[in-house]
Design a protein that fits this description.
globular; four-stranded antiparallel sheet; Alpha-Beta Plaits
Length: 88
């Protein structure tokens, strides 16, 4: 089974969300078999900054769905979108 790199765009609930703490909560919520390759930040508007983690997940049925569901339950996350994905 191969692996897939998925770049996600995580929008925080507000500009007041501590992005460093949010990164830690996201890392702690990862499902088994997934790991974060790195984070980028993207200035969106009006002080709002999106987190762009690249997550490595196994290439099986469901792909990034488990990661998206896990991240969706993290405090401070408003929305999640897949920016790109590809096989390693």
């Amino acid at each position: 089974m191969g692996k897939v790199a998925v770049k996600l765009k995580i929008m925080p609930e507000s500009p007041e969300v501590d992005l460093d703490a949010l990164q830690e909560r996201l890392e702690g919520s990862l499902p088994e078999g997934a790991k974060i390759q790195g984070f980028e930040r993207d200035d969106v508007a009006f002080g709002l900054v999106a987190l762009l983690p690249t997550v490595i997940v196994p290439d099986d049925a469901g792909g990034s769905e488990a990661v998206e569901e896990a991240f969706g339950g993290v405090e401070g996350v408003e929305s999640i979108a897949v920016e790109s994905q590809g096989r390693l």
